[in-house]
Amino acid sequence: MPVKLLSFADTQTPPEYDRPRPDRLEKGNPLRTTLNHYNSNGVNAGIWACETGAWRIAFAAGKDEFFHVLEGRIQITDAQGEAKQFGPGDAGVIPADFTGVFEVLEPVRKHYVIIDREAIK
């Protein structure tokens, strides 16, 4: 079977909604919306949106996320207290084993690509 190129604009992915786990909440209880347009062999890609709020994150070993902010503003603070803000047009990587706080300062939309090397076979 031929492999086809995927365009997010042509994809009709139903949204998935969730909120941070209560034991990880730092501020608010933001609704998160995920459109996971691509899922294959440990790689996920799509669009993620979230209301304002903050929660603790802990990335698993072997799991990295590249993201590109489309709108809004976020701040990611590492376990040592170093914070970095990202706004429209900014991109970054959350590496495997990262722990810290993810804060949505302004309602945000971002593209993401998550690579889970543990799931790649």
The strand count comes to: 9
Pattern of helices and strands: EEEEEEEEE
In percent, how much strand structure appears in the residues? over 45%
Summarize the main sheet: 9 strands, antiparallel
Range of helix content: under 10%
SSE diagram, text form:
Blueprint: E1 16-18, E2 25-27, E3 32-40, E4 43-50, E5 53-58, E6 63-78, E7 83-86, E8 91-94, E9 99-116
Antiparallel strand pairs: 1-3, 2-5, 3-4, 4-9, 5-9, 6-7, 6-8, 6-9
Organism: Limnobacter thiooxidans
Protein name: Cupin domain-containing protein
Domain (S)-ureidoglycine aminohydrolase cupin: 42-112
Please explain how this structure is put together.
The mean pLDDT is 96. The protein is built from no helices and nine strands. The chain is an all-beta fold. The protein has one domain: Jelly Rolls, CATH 2.60.120.10. A hairpin with a 2-residue loop joins strand 3 (32-40) and strand 4 (43-50). Strands 1, 2, 3, 4, 5, 6, 7, 8 and 9 form a nine-stranded antiparallel sheet that branches.
Question: What are its keywords?
Answer:
mainly beta, 9 strands, nine-stranded antiparallel β-sheet, Cupin domain-containing protein, Jelly Rolls
Concise synopsis of the structure shown:
The chain is mostly beta strands and 121 residues long. 0% of the residues lie in helices and 59% in strands.
